[in-house]
Amino acid sequence: PDLRKLRSDDEMDKTAVSKEAGKQLAEKAKEAGIENVVFDRGGYVYHGRVAAFAEGAR
User: Fold this and answer.
1) How remote is the C-alpha of 31 from its chain's centroid?
2) Where are the domains of the chain?
3) Could you tell me which of 43, 41, 36, 38 has the C-alpha nearest to residue 51?
4) Are the C-beta atoms of residues 24 and 3 closer than 8 Å to each other?
5) Which residues contact 21 (CB under 8 A, 6 or more apart)?
6) pLDDT tens readout for residues 9-45
7) Closest to 55 measured CA to CA, from 29, 25, 30, 35
8) Looking at domain 3-57, which CATH architecture does it have?
9) How far apart are alpha carbons 40 and 13 in whole angstroms?
10) pLDDT above 70: residue 5
11) What sign does the dihedral 28-54-58-34 (CA atoms) show?
12) Residues 55, 58: Cα–Cα separation, whole Å
């Protein structure tokens, strides 16, 4: 699914959108031949949207 459609969908919460964004990033990375990635949370606490993004990318 297109991430823009997910953002405009009122039924999707921010955490679900973050998880889907992580999944899409992982797919694009695999297509580009990237196998290993290090996730730097940038000082943000590892919960909520940050955790959902990382879990989606796994």
Assistant:
1) 16
2) 3-57
3) 41
4) yes
5) 3, 53, 56
6) 556 788 999 999 999 999 999 999 999 989 888 888 8
7) 25
8) 2-Layer Sandwich (3.30)
9) 23
10) no
11) positive
12) 5
